[in-house]
Fold this protein.
Amino acid sequence: MEASVKYICLLGFFVVLVIAGFGEVNGAGECGRANPDMEAFKLAPCASAAQDEDASVSSSCCAQVKKLGQNPKCLCAVMLSNTAKSSGIKPEIAMTIPKRCNIADRPVGYKCGAYTLP
């Protein structure tokens, strides 16, 4: 009897673990498994260029934007993320960075929230 109670408790524990695992989001979002807010930290070299359209865009910024720009949904999610907004990024200016970096294969005309990539 005692063994069956332990077995039932153990089985119940595993059921709880499985259910808890299904509640967690492990699927792919705009940036795959990466969180757009965490990806926004990679755009730190773009901070001044994303606040002032007259500021020069560094090569390290362009490299990161080119990498993220391979997935336009991710690039948009990052540029519109809470991390980007709280760091003073102006989305309407940030959207001009791919063009200012002369990225040839940028997603021209891609709708990004209320903004369009030039």
User: Anything to note?
Assistant: Helices lie at 2-23, 36-40, 59-68, 72-79, 82-86, 91-94, 97-100. The first helix runs from residue 2 to 23. Residues 109 and 117 are 5 Å apart (CA to CA). Confidence is low (pLDDT under 50) at residues 3-26.
